[in-house]
Amino acid sequence: MRALFIVNPQATTTTPRSRDVIVGAIARDVELHVAQTEYRDHARELARDAAGEGFDTVISLGGDGTVNEVVNGLLRTPEELPRPSYAAIPGGSANVFVRALGMPADPVEATGAVLEALRSGASRTVGLGRISGPSDDRYFTFCAGFGWDAEVVQEVERLRRRGRRASPALYINVALRMFMSGRIKNPSLRLEAPGHDPVSGLHFALVTNTTPWTYAGSVPVQPTPRSRFSLGLDVFGMTTMSTPATAVLLRRMLSHQGVPPEGRGYISRHDMSSLTISAKRPRAFQIDGEYLGERNRIDFHSVPKALRIIV
Known about the structure:
Helices cover 28% and strands 35% of the residues.
């Protein structure tokens, strides 16, 4: 087996020494070529070209942003070539996709799990989400968001450029500061989903491809607890941002059961093949924890059995 190992050298939870250990362990089992990313979207380019260069498998080491780039590259594999399978080793601050697959959050332990799967031939196919619009055609692995969460991602990216280290605590602090300032109270979003009446007046909205939406440290945050890789997309939107209602919803998100399908102050939709979210004016938008800028409208689509994952 020939494998391309895409490494993000800026991965926040690994060191050069630990990366060398991981590379050495994998290279004992497969013919391995290592490529380090040098700029944004480099991982996508490397993954897109992997099949043409004769690689059977792509392995990545990095956070959810690296995973998203690799997945989007693999889904652009030329149709005449067999698409490589994919294995992801966590190296970021949250690693939502890897953990949602049931993989260890520790990079070395996850490497061991990947090697066991490679030796046994174990794999599974997962569905993905896809966004489309005037300036978008891109896949996401676990979530997309309009409003509050995207504004948090935008602010965290700004702080990282100024030298701050990404961590669950940083995301939580930024989110709370924005909430307390009142700047996120903006009921300008509208949800349209087949089989349901349109819903306007949403302050922010999430579209998920699995649960959890994210993690608060080791605790899964579950606004859409029924969401699964094997199903369509789920949606969660808040119709109020009052402090009491938000506190209740946050407690439910952090509970083992997650947020119920129906309740006051929010709406949810389950297992949707497609949907649209629009805004009266441009709002912040993110996918898989990566800020994409402001958007007026995004169409979402479920893509079943899109990718084979080694796990």
